[in-house]
Structure formats: structure tokens, C-alpha cells
Write a structure and sequence with these properties.
Helices cover 36% and strands 4% of the residues. It has three helices and two strands, in the order ααββα. Strands 1-2 form a two-stranded antiparallel ribbon. Helix 1 (10-23) crosses helix 3. The longest helix has 15 residues, at 56-70. The protein is globular and about 35 Å long. The mean pLDDT is 87.
Length: 101
Amino acid sequence: MLDRKLYVSTDDAYDRARALRERYANDPIPIADAGQHDAETVRGHLRVDGQFVVGTSAGAGAAAVAALDEAGDLGDDDAVVFMLCDRGDKYADIPLWEEYL
């Protein structure tokens, strides 16, 4: 059940997507459940030319979680899950990744 709608600016979504790229530039991406694949295969598919780049919607999800945290709406024991809907390689022609891809 939806209990709230958060609006995130495009610039904030871009900033958070880039922050995810930097966060996982050299660290392995944690995989809780790789499903039918092994974790390394999934990790490989999350990278574009060795870089972890995600789409605008993933950045917006991260920005929304940050907003909830800054508002004090998340407790220390809360776990938040949001989708990384797609890789960022299809966004090479927008300002999000034009300098990286």
C-alpha cells in the first residue's frame, strides 16, 4: 500500500546515480540473491565497460531514501530496498552519463 509519494529533481537523481557509481567504482557490489545465476555473472552485468552506471530512476530511488533518512523517517534497524531498473549505458546521450560513456 502506498503511504507517501516523494518527488525528486532530475539533478538530485543524477547526483545520486553518480554517487552510486563512485561508491561501487572499486568495491564489489553486494548480491543478496543472484537467482538462477552466480553472483559474479550478475556483478558483470551491472557494469558497463567496467563502471557501475545506473539509470536516472535508480538515482531517484537513492535520492528518495536519502530524503527519508534526512527527515528522520528511517530507524537504525530499518532496511530499505529499491530497484536498479536498468544500466546507465542506454543514457549515454543525456547529461547523466555523457562524460563517462
